[in-house]
Amino acid sequence: MFEFGAFLFLADVFPDTLLFASVYALARSLAVFLLSSWVGGIMDTSNRLWAIRASIIWQRIPVATSCLIFIILISFPTQNSAVHLLFLVLVVLACMEKLSATANTIAVERDWAVVLCQGDNVNMRDLNAVMRRIDLIAKLVAPLSIAFIHATLTKAATWVVLAFNITSVLIEYVAIAQVYHAVPALARPLEDLDCPTREMEPMGVEEPTTTEHGAIWRRTQIWLEKVTLPWSSYLRSPLLLASLSLSILYLTVLSFNAQMVTYLLTFGYSALWVAILRLVSVIVELGATWAAPIMMSKIGPIRSGLWFITWQFGCAAVGVAIFNMTVFSQQLSVTALITGTVLSRIGLWGFDLSIQYIVQEEVPSSHRSQFSATEAAMQNLFEVLSFATTTVFARPEQFKYPALISVGAIGIANICFAVFVKQNRGHLFHTLKCLTRREYQRVDQMNVSGTR
User: I need a labelling partner for 84 at 20 to 30 A (CA). Which of 112, 245, 271, 432 fits?
Assistant: First the structure.
């Protein structure tokens, strides 16, 4: 609710520009890029209940504070240095909220879900799909509700978000504890054995560092090792191309978040219409949560991922191509962009579920959170680049350039995953394999006839 509402409130405070919304979202993504690996290390070595409860609390406190600031800015509309100072405070709070939300998502989707399924692949696919449906339904109901309230009473919308935030934190805090106590496997002790810095600590060296300068340098080395180790492990992983292809998809403005919502508002769509369009998009996305488990059960997650990402590229490319054609009216061009974006979401979420299942299956449990956190850092790096595109092309009439960049990113992601498929399967499509078999059969027949 707050993620959608924040951009509505920013559009109220700073109308007729994409700049402030882009800076706000860019800072959130940059914070996750810089700190998510550190968060992943904490998740891998901390008590599960403590870690996820901390993520809940530190997600809700910034949201509540941000709502109070939005109330002040909307109640006293003005453009001066105080407004810009409060905007900077909003940016800092947004970074805290995004980082905590990332930690929560990693814990639930990449760790808790695997433990709950206890190695049952069918249940894991179904649980992934159910969690994605819950997430999408929440993203459907919350924006529609807040947009309806915002369309009638702008200030009341901020109070509703604040009240919902305070109420939900109590429910989440209790409910997560019930799940934790119901599944004994979740109650594992702290795991410090995977920490590489322990093996690197000096033991019995002849000339121990005693100077202040040497101690500072040693602490710096240890810190750098902690920072770089998750990245070196990620870059050496056999799943690099699969994970990278999903991350590249975050370099996009073709979704009903942030930039596109602000663009549609400046184009003339009301907040209620934007919410309705987002509702349609989520309904389509829900279809992917049913289609993905069925496809994975029949052809496997790797082939499913290839089909889904190819579908996404095709729909997005057609929509953006029509959007950039001058022969059509502006309204028709925007309609084509919206249609292509909505249809491409089937491929996006089907591909997301395929990659999530591959990571759950292939990454060891002791490094799963760290890998997922580094993957989240890569995703947010590309998300930062997406917001950079609308920071550079900040005027609404320049939105066609970020849209073209987004299609190019989907194409690159498609190529990366195709290479991953080729490395793991030896071919992209079964047709190639069938042709190869027919060629072998013809050669065998020729050999048989030759011997006769």
Answer: 271
